[in-house]
Write a structure and sequence with these properties.
This protein has about 180 residues and is mainly alpha-helical. The chain has six helices and two strands, in the order H-H-H-H-E-H-E-H. Helix 2 packs antiparallel against helix 3, helix 3 runs antiparallel to helix 4 and helix 4 runs antiparallel to helix 6. The termini are far apart.
Length: about 180
C-alpha cells in the first residue's frame, strides 16, 4: 500500500481527485418513477359484445342446454372475438382478447368431450379416450382409468373442469376490463 506524506506534492492532487469523485457521485440521477396512470386502458366499447357473448356461454353452461344451443353460443363468441381482433388493439386489449380466446378454447374442448360422452353412453357418464378425446386428455392432464384393462376412460367431471377454467378466464378478463 502506498502512503502519502503531508509534505508530498501528491497531497493536492490526491485531494483534488477525492473531491472530484465525491462531486461526481453526488450528481448520480435518481431512478425515474413509473406511473401506473400511463398504462394503456382497454376500450370497454370494443369488448362490450364479446363480453356479453362470453357471459351468455358461461350462464348457459351453468343452467344446462342442448349441445346445439351450446354450439351456437360458442359460434357467437368466436365471431365476437374475430371482430375484436380485427380492430387496432393496444397491449391491454390484446391481453383481454387472448383471455376470451382461451375461455373459448376451454369451452370448445368441453363440447368435444360432451359429444363423446353422449356417443359412448357409459353408465357413469365417463368418456372413452379415443380420437380427439385423447389429445384433450393429454392437453389438460386428464388421467384415464380402465375398469376392464382394455379401454380407458376419463371422468365426466372433465367437462366441468374445463368450464371452471373458462369461467376463470372470463372473470379475470371482466375484472381487468371493468376495474381499470
Amino acid at each position: 500500500m502506498f502512503c502519502i506524506r503531508r509534505n508530498s506534492a501528491l497531497v493536492p492532487i490526491f485531494t483534488f481527485l477525492v473531491l472530484g469523485l465525491l462531486v461526481s457521485c453526488s450528481q448520480v440521477q435518481k431512478p425515474v418513477e413509473v406511473s401506473l396512470k400511463n398504462e394503456p386502458t382497454a376500450n370497454k366499447e370494443k369488448f362490450q359484445s364479446l363480453h356479453r357473448a362470453a357471459k351468455s356461454v358461461e350462464g348457459a353452461a351453468s343452467i344446462g342446454l342442448s349441445q346445439k344451443e351450446f354450439r351456437g353460443l360458442l359460434q357467437q363468441m368466436a365471431t365476437e372475438i374475430s371482430i375484436v381482433k380485427d380492430q387496432n388493439l393496444n397491449e391491454k386489449e390484446s391481453k383481454l382478447c387472448n383471455m376470451f380466446s382461451n375461455a373459448l378454447n376451454f369451452y370448445q374442448d368441453s363440447l368435444v368431450l360432451w359429444q363423446h360422452q353422449q356417443e359412448d353412453g357409459t353408465y357413469d357418464g365417463s368418456i372413452m379416450i379415443r380420437g380427439e378425446v385423447k389429445g384433450i386428455a393429454q392437453k389438460y392432464g386428464f388421467h384415464g382409468s380402465s375398469p376392464t384393462g382394455e379401454l380407458f376412460f376419463i371422468s365426466k367431471d372433465s367437462i366441468q373442469i374445463l368450464w371452471v377454467k373458462a369461467h376463470e378466464q372470463i372473470s379475470d378478463a371482466s375484472r381487468i376490463l371493468y376495474q381499470q
